[in-house]
């Protein structure tokens, strides 16, 4: 019963949001005004048409592929470094100021340098996504290691477990919830910056498609793409939360 009420309350918020959008663009805005070009009555049918009869779905898949590649690189870098930071206080003291300094730099500010170094294409996007997502993974992994019950490590040591066995059967299960939190934050960040990243001269992706709709003055298609971005982001976050509950 509580679950149904929770879902209904969430649905009611979406209904209110949809109503405010319809009120602002279809009711209060004059006909043929700029705001009316983003109306609900034009956007929703356009979204259905794009999903069933255009390349929008393919653009979404390409964006998701880039997100996955960026997250894989972030995990490869962030998890080992996070383990080291959490296990060795001197490493945290030595690297903390530098990492905090880098973390506070907007990933998008690296766009010109990324293009100069990696050229046009997917490589600068992978770099920007990795740079943006490595920090929540790294710091949450380190936080999990710090909060790990040391008695578990002592038990593993008393049973003559090797370092790899301790890492696999004690450390990783103990920090899994923290890692999932870091991954969830990383996905949210990546999904936010993927659109401007895909304006770096690539020829596919949701960011590219938004620029294309702007250039063609196809405002219902532009608004449809924005809705799809929000929907996919919501589904990604829900999937990670469900996985975290199951693994926890």
Automatic annotation (TrEMBL):
Any Gene Ontology CC annotation: plasma membrane
UniProt xrefs under PROSITE patterns: ABC_TM1
Domain of life the protein comes from: Bacteria
Subcellular location: Cell membrane
ABC transmembrane type-1 domain span: 60-240
Pfam families in UniProt: BPD_transp_1 (PF00528)
Record keywords: Cell membrane, Membrane, Transmembrane, Transmembrane helix, Transport
Its membrane topology: Multi-pass membrane protein
InterPro entries given in the database record: MetI-like, MetI-like_sf
GO annotation terms (biological process): alkanesulfonate transmembrane transport; cellular response to sulfur starvation
Keyword S-adenosyl-L-methionine: no
Subcellular location, principal: membrane
Transmembrane segments: 67-87, 99-119, 125-145, 185-211, 217-236
PANTHER family, sorted: ALKANE SULFONATE ABC TRANSPORTER-RELATED, MEMBRANE SUBUNIT, TAURINE TRANSPORT SYSTEM PERMEASE PROTEIN TAUC
Family membership: Belongs to the binding-protein-dependent transport system permease family.
Function: Probably part of an ABC transporter complex. Probably responsible for the translocation of the substrate across the membrane.
Protein name in the entry: NitT/TauT family transport system permease protein
Species of origin: Bartonella choladocola
